[in-house]
Design brief:
alpha/beta; Rossmann fold; 4 domains; 7-stranded mixed β-sheet; 6-stranded parallel β-sheet; 23 helices
């Protein structure tokens, strides 16, 4: 078999592994740190050398999961991808999938985010293995991410159940050499047989019977850990270290650097659930005490302590509950300080915080500017009217100069939580802001509820025509998918109108005065009102070419900084203590020009000298 070595990110390695395993159907919803898996698959299947499996982004994780489950039941190997909180969205079908099982392999990639770096919760998805009664495997580097992807399909087909592969940010985004093999064309004949016991959950007696079978299947997984080489022991000594995932690399680096491999014995676990009890018990008998190194919760630590107690082993076990920080991502320094019994490094450099801004010309800037002035024109102070936020680029509206959103909870929650304020009797107007992709993901059901209950609420849907924050994936408004498949584009306005909303205004956030007037006019009106703030993402606009940019006439500019304070646009800068515009960053949205009290900001063609 042909082998080649490539430099790959962990997510890219997973995509290569899926194609090596002959994946036929892949779906998911974008979410950092998992997004590049499907992005890479889309790039690879665009080449002539690769067969063309079905690879498409879905409207949310639950839908993606059910597409892949159906495909696996039909005999096609499938891959569904998401970040940690995405598995919460898909948890309903996840729990039933153990009962239905699969025919062809189904791999569930869930990427957790210790830190967290880009996620609303520091969630440990390993617990879902317990809850759903599904195996959980965890690679520790890009090479293992590639290999475990292939093994995941083999394990799934051996036990006829989906397999969860849990990764973390450092595995997903680490780049290293990865040895890969040839891609395999999907080879199967689609079929599906009627089997009420497996596929229908409405009969409680069958559910009870099936539950027992699921538990028996799960019991068969532990011996397979040895067959698929998912666990290994390294080093020697009386002190044991049990670890999994990216932190295994930290452990190895610390021990090798300090010449301590002779002192420690390492159990590296690739099968997380069910815990390979026999392997672990034998390891615990050979050591005097154990340090558990893991991300995020003390999941393995709790399991090991229970196992040692049941086996009446005299071994001390400690980890995140006692030795390591209980929150946040573990670092090399954390591991080194524990293994060398030293205090954590006190010489860390504290860098100044730099909150991420909205991009130059981002249409969300215009939306927040319009909301701020429109609310003011309606007779309220900024900060007096609750603005319930959602998940997406527009959540950056929490930063100056807007400090707009009051909440950011979970996908689609802005509308539901805003409705909660109103039905609880909140006396003032309430605004919910949500992006177009988030609306399609989960906000649509919240809007149905708000329309049906005729709540006094202003909903602002920020339609920038893409899933911007995670890398510009497509939304249901696209006519063509990234893979080139022709699709039926949905009109956001028609969808909202079809849900029963009657007061709908499509507004351009670059037209500041008009937007302000729309907000002022609607905010105090009874019932549900919807503003669709429609303008393409500025980054996408830049890719297609920007014809005009703004410039500042120094003769007229008084350096009042109204443009900076009102827009917060990163294209505005203070050059020698005077405001200026970085032409290469400007997209010519003219929002700064519209708020300049001295008409000192003008437009010109890009590259034109003034």
């Amino acid at each position: 078999m042909h082998h080649s070595k490539l430099v790959l990110m962990g997510n890219e390695a997973i995509a290569y592994g899926a194609l090596t395993a002959g994946v036929a159907v892949a779906s998911g919803y974008p979410g950092t740190p998992s997004s590049e898996v499907l992005d890479t698959l889309l790039e690879l299947i665009a080449s002539e050398e690769v067969s063309r499996p079905y690879v498409e982004w879905a409207v949310n994780e639950r839908v993606a999961f059910e597409i892949c489950l159906g495909a696996s039941l039909a005999g096609a190997r499938s891959l569904v991808t998401m970040k940690g909180p995405g598995l919460n969205v898909a948890s309903d079908p996840l729990l039933s999938s153990a009962y239905s099982g699969v025919e062809a392999g189904m791999l569930i990639l869930v990427a957790d985010d210790p830190g967290p770096h880009t996620t609303q919760t520091e969630q440990d998805s390993r617990w879902y293995g317990e809850l759903a009664k599904l195996p959980v495997i965890e690679p520790s580097d890009p090479q293992e991410a590639y290999e475990y992807t292939i093994v995941g399909y083999e394990l799934s087909e051996e036990i006829k159940m989906p397999v969860i592969m849990r990764t973390t940010t450092r595995v997903n985004h680490t780049v290293s050499d990865v040895e890969v093999r040839e891609f395999k064309d999907p080879s199967y004949t689609p079929s599906f047989s009627k089997n009420p016991k497996r596929y229908i959950r409405a009969v409680m007696a069958l559910n009870r019977e099936r539950h027992g079978e699921v538990l028996e299947t799960l019991d068969s997984v532990e011996p397979l850990a040895e067959k698929f080489r998912l666990c290994r022991v390294e080093g020697s000594g009386e002190v044991g270290i049990v670890c999994s995932g990216a932190v295994y690399n930290y452990v190895l680096e610390v021990l090798e650097k300090n010449g301590l491999l002779y002192k420690y014995k390492i159990l590296k676990l690739g099968l997380i659930h069910p815990l390979p009890r026999k392997t672990v018990a034998e390891f615990l008998k050979e050591v005097s005490n154990v340090i558990v190194v893991e991300e995020i919760d003390p999941y393995l630590e709790i399991k090991l302590k229970a196992l040692a107690h049941d086996a009446e082993l005299d071994v001390k076990i400690a980890g995140r509950q006692e030795l390591f920080p209980r929150v946040g991502e573990l670092t090399l320094d954390d591991v080194e300080s524990v293994l060398l019994s030293e205090k954590p490094n006190s010489h860390k450099v504290n860098l100044p915080s730099r909150p991420p801004p909205l991009c130059p010309g981002c249409p969300h800037i215009g939306t927040y500017m319009g909301l701020r002035m429109g609310i003011s024109r309606a007779g309220y102070r900024w900060g007096e009217i609750p603005i319930m936020g959602d998940i997406g680029c527009y959540a950056l509206g929490l930063n100056p100069p807007f400090e707009a959103i009051w909440t950011e909870h979970s996908m689609g929650a802005s509308i539901s939580m805003a409705m909660g304020l109103k039905v609880a009797g909140y006396p003032k107007p309430v605004v919910a802001v949500i992006g177009d992709s988030t609306f399609y993901h989960s906000g649509i059901t919240s809007l149905i509820e708000a329309v049906h209950k005729n709540v006094d609420l202003l909903v602002v849907i920020m339609d920038n025509s893409t899933v911007a924050m995670t890398g510009h994936q497509p939304t249901p408004e696209y006519e063509e998918s990234v893979s080139g498949r022709r699709m039926k584009p949905l009109s956001l306005e028609k969808v909202v109108r079809g849900l029963g909303a009657e007061k709908i205004v499509v507004a351009d956030p670059y037209k500041y005065k008009d937007f302000v007037e729309t907000v002022r006019e609607l905010i105090n009106q009874p019932g549900l009102k919807v503003i669709i703030s429609k303008r393409a993402c500025a980054i996408l606009a830049k890719k297609t070419g920007v014809g005009q940019v703004c410039w500042i006439d120094p003769e007229k500019c008084t350096n009042c900084l109204a443009c900076v304070k009102t827009t917060g646009c990163p294209a505005l800068t203070l050059l020698e203590k005077r405001v200026d515009i970085i032409e290469s960053e400007c997209v010519g949205c003219t929002l700064c020009m519209q708020v300049c009290p001295y008409n000192a900001i003008l437009v010109k063609k890009r590259g034109e000298v003034k």
